[in-house]
Write a structure and sequence with these properties.
By secondary structure, this protein is of the alpha/beta class. It is built from 16 helices and twelve strands. The chain folds into three domains: 134 residues, Response regulator (Rossmann fold, 3-Layer(aba) Sandwich); 160 residues, Alpha-Beta Plaits; 40 residues, no CATH class. Strands 2-1-3-4-5 form a five-stranded parallel sheet, sandwiched between helices. It has a five-stranded mixed sheet with strand order 7-8-6-11-12.
């Protein structure tokens, strides 16, 4: 059983209100007000009211003034609320003015209950259909849990961007990023909590993209960015900044910090030959998976071959160690060691450390090999 729909009846005549309420009770939950000002306050406070039946001639605020406020409201529920005007002795010009203000329908004073119920039910059914249509459109555009674009809408945005790029001769880049070992994160946290953690990282990313870029879902623990008018070189550099930002970020979950890394696939036109936006998205997705299979925490772009393990600067290595991400630094120890050999030689000489530098250098180079 569902609660009956709440209707607001507005008329300065108590007898008219009683007659209308008698026709509606049993089918609707009726609320009554005697003037437009009181009705307006009721509409602002009671969000369960779904429709209004109002007289035109009333003190303080007449029916036309009430209707004008309702349609001019910033609240969408009021802008689109069914509003039936009870018409009496008004002239045709007055009725036309109210029609222009946004009246949904008219009933004459003294109309029977069957006519009122029919008109009201028809308007409420139309309103419900419109709400369902809007909800369907929003679900296509926006993921309800994260607020980010849905995969379907992202494909639509990519299709439009590809068409514009073809007409205008500009670049179009697409990035697909996914959290490495996301299945293990799901096992540890549970799929719902893991997805929320991924979304929190993605919302951090949302603050870094341009207004003209589109960020949305691609798959579980995976997100995509469509960036029209961006060169592949600039976009790949941006992808590297994203990878580095995730690498040192920590999101607290149930009192414990969660650390993640991402692999990123980049595809672009005209560098990559893709006939459709879906093909370009899929190419970026394949490159992301190649990066994951090659060890993760890397970017794959261009010819689709996983990039060589990128060089890590000493300063960046120190930042990662400070962020408790030493596991990210470990694969680079050979290269980092070779970089600091001149410093070790200086320290060995000036501080008299007697370090076995020849053996240390050999070990560094063996690690690189």
């Amino acid at each position: 059983m569902t609660d009956p729909v709440r209707i607001l009846v507005v008329d300065d005549s108590r007898l008219v209100r009683m007659a209308l309420a008698r026709n509606l009770k049993g089918t609707f939950d009726v609320r009554e007000e005697g003037d437009g000002e009181a009705a307006w306050q009721q509409l602002l406070l009671d969000h369960s009211i779904r429709a209004v039946i109002s007289d035109l001639q009333m003190p303080k605020l007449d029916g036309a003034g009430l209707l004008q406020r309702v349609r001019a409201s910033k609240q969408r529920r009021l802008q689109e609320m069914p509003f039936i005007v009870v018409s009496g002795e008004e002239t045709e010009e007055e009725r036309e003015r109210v029609r222009v203000l946004g009246a949904s329908d008219f009933v004459t004073k003294g109309a029977g209950s069957a006519e009122i119920l029919t008109r009201l039910n028809n308007l409420l059914a139309l309103s419900a259909a419109r709400e369902n249509l809007e909800a369907g459109r929003e679900s296509m555009v926006q993921d309800p849990s994260s607020g980010l674009f849905s995969r379907r809408y992202l494909e639509h945005q990519a299709s439009q961007a590809l068409s514009h790029a073809a007409r205008s001769g500009i670049d179009l880049c697409i990035m697909v990023l996914g959290f490495d070992a996301f299945d293990r994160v799901c096992e540890r946290l549970g799929p719902d909590l893991a997805e929320r953690v991924g979304t929190r990282f993605a919302k951090m990313l949302a603050g870094k993209v341009r207004t003209e870029d589109s960020l949305g879902h691609f798959g579980p623990g995976q997100f995509a960015i469509v960036a029209p008018g961006t060169s592949p070189m600039v976009f790949t550099a941006f992808a590297e900044r994203v990878r580095e930002a995730v690498e040192v970020a920590h999101v607290p979950v149930q009192g414990q910090p969660v650390s993640l890394t991402v692999s990123i696939g980049v595809a672009s036109v005209p560098v990559d030959h893709a006939d459709t936006a879906l093909a370009l998205l899929d190419l970026a997705g394949r490159r992301m998976r190649e990066g994951m299979q090659a060890g993760g925490n890397r970017i794959v772009a261009g010819d689709g071959v996983p990039a060589k393990l990128r060089q890590l600067k000493v300063q960046r290595a120190l930042e990662l160690i400070a962020a408790h991400r030493s596991e990210v630094v470990s694969p680079h120890l050979g290269q980092l060691g070779v970089e600091i050999l001149p410093l070790l030689h200086l320290m060995n000489r000036d501080l008299g450390l007697n370090l076995p530098l020849a053996d240390i250098e050999r070990r560094f180079r063996d690690r690189i090999s």
